[in-house]
Every structure is written in structure tokens, then in C-alpha cells.
Write a structure and sequence with these properties.
By secondary structure, the protein is of the alpha+beta class. It is built from 6 helices and 24 strands.
């Protein structure tokens, strides 16, 4: 008999997770999905600030020392870069902070904008040969821009930080009914004047007074800018025709056709005219009643945790009151679901995509019911539960609605970086 001992080492098998890590929870009824949409205004501000930071970085490299000190004052990109670094904190962009902390993040971003704008103006002056003052319209989402509202003549400079040429529609608040727009070569550009929607007026309140919006297409070269000249031709109290009541059976351009249900005013289908494919598609707004906790768990719905009282949401309305604007440049259908939810369905000329511009709020809570509002699309796609999301447009992730959620027991304190 051998005196040597044998030791058998057994390595336990551990499960390997290779699919989606979201959503996850640390306790039952505590899924960390509330912060995906908490404080959406701050999320948008940070996203817009990142766009300006990239522009500022590029122009600072291009302009060198002349960018930091010039005819428009002193500027730098470092202030906004530092503010953006702080805003990436998991209790900043996530929206889980208290309101006074969110205000501080926003103030830091605003300070960064104030340092970047002179830098951008200095470089554009060097490149264009003009030292005319520049104004930045940061509230176009509510149709506020004092320069375009107050002046009969002005120039619009559009910068493209991307590596390929880009075309998009410029929308500026104005008070005239007819304008002339010319491109950088002095060639006329098609333009259209339409009324500012009642939805936008309600959100804007007394922060601006433009009655109309001037819309024209702009094309900008890669890593470059284009300057368009705008001149007032007519100021009329009559103005452009108002939106017409009702939704048409369909709107379409060269590539896309969209139909509406005549009884409800909701989307009913979308067609790709190039491939002759039609998809039954409806879209509506719903709300989940936020839980305040119950006998199963005291966890309420909040900035971190999304916890509704039921898995079935309530429709804001089963039909929408509709109005239509049809112009040579674009077609729009205004949908009003309630006094606090509205949407513009927009199809631009030559566009391959349908634009949905929604306005939600102020959300009524006088009934004592917390509301988590969603926009839901229902289609006849047989996807087998699979869908895809992107990470800043750079990485596509396949996800499945049938994969069990990840529950991390105890002790977790912070969500992963967003």
C-alpha cells in the first residue's frame, strides 16, 4: 500500500452569461430601468453639448492659437470638456440626482457652451473672412431665435463635424410670410413658411413670439460649413394658410408612403416605394401607473427603478385629433392625443425616413397617479422576440424579449456606465 496520498481537485462549473445584461435588478420588483429615461431634458442637453464639443475640438485644431483669442473674444474647449466629463457620472446623465444637483450639471454645461461659442466664431471668421457677430440659437426646439425673429436680413451658417456630406432641413422661427434664401454660391434655395404649431406655442409660452417657421434644405460638406443668406420679401398679417383639419388617407414622397386610419387618425402602415414592401404599423402613446409599493415589496417606481402597478399600460387616447400641412418641401400631420400629448408626423421631400416629433407634458398628476409615458409601435413583423439597439450609432446589439432578466443579489450600489 502506497504511503502517498492522492488529492482530487474539482472545479465547479459556473454559468457563463453571453446574452444581454439588461435589464437587471438587485431585489425582486427592483429592476434598474427607470434611469433610462429619467430627466430627459438633461439627457438631451448633454447629447447636444457633446455635439458642440466635437465641433469645438475640430475648429480649435484647425484654427490653432487664433481660435482661442480673436475678434469675438477669448474661448476654449477645455471648459466644456471638463463639464462633459462630470456629466458622464452615473448620477448625472442617468438623471438619478436631486433637482438642485441636476441644475448644477446644467450650469456647468452652459458655462462650457459660453467658452466654446467665441472659439467657433473666431475660426469661422478666419475661414470666411467676415468678422460679423455670430449668434447661437440654442432654443430652436421651442422655436425661439431672436436673430431670425427680429431681422429682415441675416445669414445662417451650418457646420458639419462628420466625415461625409450631410443634407438636412433648417427650421428657423420668423415673423415674415415670404423669404428669399440663397446658398453659398448665391443660387436660390427652395423655402417654405409655415405656422408655429399650437403644441410648440404652449411649451414656449412667453419666451419667444415668432408666428411662423422658415424651412429650407441645407447641404454641408464633410468637416466644413455652408452659409445661407436669408432676406424678408413680405410681411403679411394674413400669413401662410393654417393647418387643415383632418388627416389625409396617406402622405408620400419619392421613397416612403405612410397611411393613416380614417377613424382614429393614427398611423396604420408604412411602405418602402423602392422595394414595394408595406408594413402594417400603428403607433400610440400610453402610460403606466407608477407603483408606490405594496405588500410584495415596498419599492416604489422612481428615478432608478421602473415599477408599474400593472404590465398593461393605459392609452392616453384611442384616437387623435388631426391637422395637415402639405407643402412642396414636406408634408406634416399634426396629432393631438390630449392637452398634454401631441405629435407631428413629418415626411420631407427626398427623405428615406419618417420623422416623429412628439411633445409630452406637463404630465398631470393631480389625480394622485404617477405616470410613466411611452410611445409604442405595433407591427406585423414576425421577429421571434428579437430586436436591435445601437450604442451611439456605432455598435448594434441583438436583444431578445424572452431572455430572463439578470438579478444580482444584495449589495449592488451603482449602475454601469451609460
Amino acid at each position: 500500500m502506497s504511503s502517498e496520498s492522492s488529492v482530487l481537485l474539482v472545479t465547479p462549473r459556473r454559468p457563463v452569461k453571453t446574452d444581454d445584461f439588461f435589464p437587471y435588478a438587485d431585489t425582486p420588483h427592483s429592476f434598474w430601468t427607470g434611469y433610462f429615461s429619467s430627466r430627459p431634458a438633461l439627457k438631451r442637453y448633454e447629447r447636444k453639448s457633446n455635439g458642440l464639443l466635437q465641433v469645438c475640438n475640430q475648429l480649435e485644431v484647425l484654427g490653432g492659437a487664433a481660435s482661442r483669442r480673436g475678434p469675438h473674444g477669448s474661448g476654449d474647449s477645455d471648459t466644456l470638456r471638463r463639464a462633459m466629463g462630470v456629466a458622464q457620472h452615473h448620477d448625472a446623465v442617468a438623471g438619478t440626482e436631486k433637482q438642485h444637483v441636476a441644475n448644477d450639471y446644467a450650469q456647468r454645461l452652459a458655462s462650457g457652451w459660453a467658452h466654446c461659442e467665441p472659439l467657433v466664431s473666431n475660426v469661422l471668421s478666419v475661414l470666411s473672412g467676415s468678422v460679423s457677430p455670430h449668434s447661437y440659437c440654442g432654443s430652436l426646439n421651442i422655436s425661439v431665435c431672436p436673430v431670425s425673429e427680429d431681422n429682415h436680413q441675416f445669414s445662417v451658417t451650418v457646420y458639419n463635424p462628420m466625415g461625409s456630406a450631410v443634407s438636412w432641413s433648417v427650421r428657423l422661427p420668423v415673423n415674415g410670410s415670404l423669404y428669399s434664401v440663397t446658398d453659398p454660391r448665391g443660387q436660390p434655395v427652395d423655402s417654405q413658411v409655415v405656422p408655429v404649431s399650437n403644441f410648440t406655442r404652449a411649451v414656449r409660452r412667453d419666451r419667444g413670439y415668432a408666428a411662423y417657421e422658415l424651412v429650407f434644405p441645407a447641404r454641408v460638406p464633410p468637416l466644413g460649413f455652408s452659409t445661407y443668406s436669408v432676406s424678408l420679401l413680405q410681411r403679411s398679417w394674413q400669413g401662410p394658410p393654417p393647418p387643415q383639419p383632418g388627416a389625409p388617407p396617406s402622405i408620400q414622397n419619392e421613397f416612403v408612403k405612410v397611411t393613416f386610419d380614417p377613424d382614429t387618425g393614427l398611423l396604420s402602415s408604412i411602405s418602402n416605394l423602392e422595394t414595394q414592401q408595406t408594413l402594417r404599423l400603428s403607433q400610440n402613446f400610453y402610460w403606466y401607473n407608477a407603483s408606490v409599493g405594496n405588500s410584495d415589496s415596498a419599492q416604489p417606481s422612481g428615478a432608478y427603478i421602473f415599477r408599474p402597478n400593472t404590465s398593461s399600460p393605459f392609452p392616453v387616447s384611442t384616437r387623435a385629433q388631426t391637422f395637415t400641412v402639405q407643402t412642396p418641401l414636406f408634408q406634416e400631420v399634426y396629432q393631438e392625443f390630449s392637452p398634454w400629448v401631441s405629435q407631428v408626423v413629418r415626411l420631407p421631400r427626398g427623405g428615406h425616413q419618417l420623422e416623429l416629433e412628439w411633445t409630452v407634458g406637463p404630465i398631470p398628476v393631480g389625480d394622485g397617479l404617477g405616470k410613466e409615458v411611452i410611445s409604442r409601435f405595433d407591427s406585423d413583423i414576425n421577429s421571434s422576440g428579437l430586436f436591435y439597439t445601437d450604442s451611439n450609432g456605432r455598435e448594434i446589439l441583438e436583444r431578445s424579449s424572452d431572455v430572463p432578466s439578470l438579478v444580482i443579489p444584495g449589495g449592488i450600489s451603482d449602475p454601469p456606465g451609460i
